[in-house]
Amino acid sequence: MSRGATVKLFLKRGALIAAANWQVVLIQFVADAFFKTLLLVPVVGGTALVVLLVGADPVDLLDLDARRVVPELAAMLLAHPVALVSFLTAVGLVLVGGSILMFFVKGGALTILVEAEHAAGPIERPPLTGALIRRAGRFGLDRFTAGARRLFRRFFRLGVALGVVYALSIGGYLVVILAPPGDTEGSWTAAATLASAALVAWITLVNFVYLLFQIVMAADDCGLRRAAPRVARLLVRAPATVGLVFLAMLALVVLTWAGAILATAALGLIAFVPFVGLASLPLQLLAWLLRGAVFQYIGLTSAGAYLRAYRVHQGVADGVAAGALDEGGQPA
């Protein structure tokens, strides 16, 4: 079997397992929406605070030279330490509280996913029957909360490590952005563009490795230290397989974002039509709900595919030794 066909089976298996445990998709969507809503409060308040401290029309800020916008905003907050500390404290409290919630939910979600992957059997191979779908459906509130409690401390420590990496990455990015501009505006713009692209690529890679750590910790019921060499072995033994899964899911996310943007633009045009535009409000709400659920489903699909790849290359897929498995992870 070719590597492309193997990756396709992994993705199909992940998608079917995620669909069989649709309750987890909804729980993650609600938790993520709640977290983002909470985070919006201090961000909006901080933006209004900056505008009040400026004492000028916000439009004037937009008229500033591109090289001066970020330094001006930073200088405004630094010139008012109380406002800066209050803003950072509010954002920090929301980030910590929301992250704790997400660690708990993620532990329960991956617990269900691991059990479903183990019990699903050859669900990715035809014929697909209702019995296989029901067999893969392992969601239970007691099982979810038990797994969340069991993995919470491990995921919390992993999240702290992720936060340190984020802080160092953003710090390096700000050093580049806030550096004095060069001789020409074009040089600063080019440096800022390259720094932004590098940051996005780096954060994407960090999140990918972070997800692998979570999957290994949930699958093997181990801590961060024991998971590190296992993640490294997976990346060394199956770089092409894991890389193809990553690229496939990245392409799917990009296409989904593009579709969401087009749908939002279309609904925005409808909103300008008298009377008919009122119908766009429930449609926009429905589109937002659908988009959030789809992204959570994609995330669980990718986790299921990575989990299958890990089990196959660790020789424990379906409880069979590695030598008795074909390239698709099924008994030979």
Explain the overall architecture.
There is one protein chain. This protein is an all-alpha fold. 81% of the residues lie in helices and 0% in strands. It is globular.
Task: Give the tags.
single chain; 332 residues; mainly alpha; 11 helices; 81% helix
Radius of gyration: 23 Å
Q: Overall pLDDT, averaged?
A: 80
- Provide a count of the helices: 11
| Main sheet specs | none
The coarse overall form would be globular
Could you provide a short overview of the structure?
This protein is mainly alpha-helical and 332 residues long.
Secondary structure topology:
Elements: H1 3-20, H2 22-54, H3 58-62, H4 66-78, H5 81-119, H6 130-136, H7 141-177, H8 185-220, H9 224-237, H10 239-271, H11 280-313
Helix pairs in contact: 1-10, 1-11, 2-5, 2-11, 5-7, 5-8, 5-11, 7-8, 8-9, 8-11, 10-11
